[in-house]
Design a protein that fits this description.
The structure is a single chain. It contains eleven helices and six strands. Helix content is about 55%, strand content about 10%. A hairpin with a 2-residue loop joins strand 3 (about 150-155) and strand 4. By secondary structure, it is α+β, with helices and mostly antiparallel strands. The chain has a four-stranded mixed β-sheet. Strands 1-2 form a two-stranded antiparallel ribbon. Helix 1 packs parallel to helix 7 (about 105-120), helix 3 (about 40-55) crosses helix 4 (about 65-70) and helix 3 (about 40-55) packs parallel to helix 5.
């Protein structure tokens, strides 16, 4: 997986998507990030890259930091946000080459958030999404271990992952995309329960909430 190529491709897909939207669509709330509209989520994506390049990146990506990215770009037209993002493309490619592929995670997760908000699926069969899945799975495994829970076995038609050795305390089987989005905290507790094949899932629900609370209702994806 080439992080530079995957990040650049994801950025291009997002720009193509948002430039095709109507004004009404850009004002829609994003179900996966309900405090933000489509335009505001794009402002966060642009602002995160700008902050990372400026050396302003807290380890926890806290809500104060992310909200400042949105607030500082309030009132900007979508075209202005896209123009700013394009100026960051080459610096971000250099950052990904020389330092860390971490920014790929943000653009891949939020590409799907945006697509769900406007009903335009895409970008589901990419190396970037598979790479982010693997990163999120390892983070999930770390949370399982920190919670002192038995291992979890995650299965989809195309992928199998275990969080540790020994008998699984939970076995989950879901479609590929749903399992990926579950690792991104984008699936409800009820959805996770439906995919449980063995073991009690409730002790593991806080572990699935790695990026914030689980959604109250299924996302439109």
């Amino acid at each position: 997986m080439d992080a530079i190529t995957e990040w650049t491709n994801a950025q291009g897909r997002v720009i193509e998507l948002v430039e095709s939207l109507s004004d009404e669509e850009t004002r829609r709330a994003v179900p996966a990030t309900p405090d933000w509209t489509v335009s505001q989520l794009l402002a966060h994506m642009v602002g995160l890259n700008a902050d990372v390049l400026a050396g302003d990146e807290p380890e926890d990506h806290n809500s104060t930091w992310t909200q400042r990215q949105v607030d500082s770009r309030a009132g900007r037209a979508l075209a202005e946000l896209v123009d700013e993002w394009r100026t960051l493309t080459k610096p971000m490619q250099d950052y990904l080459r020389d330092r860390s592929p971490r920014p790929l995670t943000d653009v891949v997760i939020h590409e799907q958030d945006l697509r769900g908000a406007v009903g335009r699926p895409g970008g589901r069969d990419t190396g970037g999404l598979a790479a982010v899945r693997d990163v999120m799975a390892e983070r999930f495994a770390s949370r399982v271990r920190r919670a002192h829970l038995p291992p979890v076995e995650l299965r989809s038609p195309a992928w199998i992952f275990s969080t540790g050795d020994g008998e699984p305390g939970l076995e989950l089987f879901a479609p590929d995309f749903d399992l990926i989005r579950a690792l991104m905290t984008r699936r409800t507790a009820d959805q996770l329960r439906q995919w449980s094949r063995a073991g009690a899932i409730d002790p593991y629900l806080p572990v699935f909430a790695g990026l914030g609370p689980l959604p109250d209702r299924p996302l439109p994806e």
